[in-house]
Amino acid sequence: MMKQLLTGLALCLTSAATIQAQSACNGLRYRDFVFQDTTISNIVYGSNQSFNNSTTSLRLDVHMPKNDTVTNRPLIILAHGGNFLSGSKTGGDVIQFCNDLSQMGYVVASIDYRVGMTNFPFPGPDSTDATEAVMRAVQDAKAAVRFFKKDYAALGNTYGIDTSNIYFMGVSAGGFMALHVAYLDEPSEFPSWADTTNQPGLSGGIEGNSGNPGYSSNVRAVINIAGALGDTAWINAGDEPVLNFHGTADQTVPYGSATIVLLGTYPLLTVHGSASIDTRVDQLGITNCFEIHEGQGHVPHVSSAAYYDTTLVITRNFLVHFVCGDQLDCGWSNPIGMQELPALRSVLDVYPNPATTEFTVNTGRLAGNDYSIEVYDSTGKLFRRQRAESDGTTTLNTQGWVPGMYMITVRNAAQQYTQRVIVK
Questions:
Q1: DSSP states along 90-146
Q2: Domain 345-423, classified CATH 1.10.287.1700, yes or no
Q3: I need a surface site. Which of 107, 137, 154, 375 has the fewest CB within 10 A?
Q4: CA distances to 78, 110, 310, 340 from 44, in Å
């Protein structure tokens, strides 16, 4: 009798969550900027031994829509790049995705994970060292998925997520992680040459021992930006849908199937990039999108506002197919920002963009007055702050700025406006 009551309660809760999720899809949510971003930093989601046998605490930042009332939101877990040697959960390759996707209504968790390779830099890593580095990171990724499922089941759903709507997204090395989270899902697929006995932090098979045991690490779909997979034979019919982005001239991670050469110096092993993955998922009838960056190198979204916008819009289109049931759209359509709340980006005029010597910030079309101008660098850190000129035209001299992407935010007590800019 008690089991029947519990089962009935679970069905009621599931039905309520489904109704709330469907209701949340009516309007701009998940399709455009609706909220401001609020962040909870440095949450410990697990720990494990790194390649050098040191204990590493695994941390993540959670980005959430500010003042949101929905409590069963889709979760995107995001992993940075860095050749499995470096990188950060606040790095320039991921931080703007965190901010923008949370403004659309998603919960976004940007994770740090174990990095470093045995024998790097001397005498130089080989295929075994590289495989083991990937496996440590993938075990951490799976622990991050389990962390949120454990929190949902045992700790009251602190972050207000829907565990049936968890997506894993990664850039470069993080793209490797996303693909392996999805497709390295059988114990028999765990690479036999990974030394789980003598090399630290590799026990536990494909799930690993990085934390939160007893919960599933399954995700609904994955997004791979310039990553690769160890073996496309790991992809089977019925596996997770995938969105791939890759430059055809990528010299860091192969566009197709080829030997990856770490830092252009250390040949490691054959991996299978987005083009090979696309062929396999098409053959198997797995739902997928593939955005080819013709003639582009590695992760062009980091240095190009246009490629960033393309990547964000296609990511939005892919996700909303699963979250809200919209028709799958693999192309560039309905650019984000046309209906941005609390303000329209279109009324904030920053030019020229890209710039070489200076930007002009025109606040003359903004309602109200007493604006401050804040500039954030590619890591999301405040780089510069000043008052906007009363005549509505403020010049920002870019002498000494490192070339790359910046965010310019104009705000007063009532509202804020943000625009991405590039310094050449």
A1: TSTTTHHHHHHHHHTT-EEEEE------TTTTTT---HHHHHHHHHHHHHHHHHHHH
A2: no
A3: 154
A4: 15, 12, 33, 33
In the chain, where the domains are located:
21-324, 345-423
DSSP β-ladder status, 393-397 and 358-362: antiparallel
183 membership: H or E segment, kind and range? helix 173-183
Residue-level pLDDT at 338? 36
Class of domain 21-324 (CATH, top level): alpha beta
The DSSP annotation for 243-280 comes to EEEEETT-SSS-SSEEEEEETTTEEEEEEE-HHHHHHH
Alpha-carbon gap, residue 312 to 74, rounded angstroms: 16
Q: What are the mean pLDDT values of the chain's consecutive 10-residue runs (424 residues total)?
A: 40 46 77 88 98 97 94 97 96 93 96 96 94 97 98 97 98 98 94 90 96 98 98 97 98 97 93 98 98 96 89 95 95 59 53 88 78 80 88 91 84 75 84
Query: From the CB of residue 322, how many other CB atoms can be counted at a distance below 10 Å?
Result: 17
* Backbone φ, ψ for residue 389 (5° rounding): -65, 145
d(Cα 275, Cα 254) in Å, to the nearest integer? 9
Domains 21-324 and 345-423 share a fold: no
Task: Name the DSSP letter for residue 355.
Answer: B
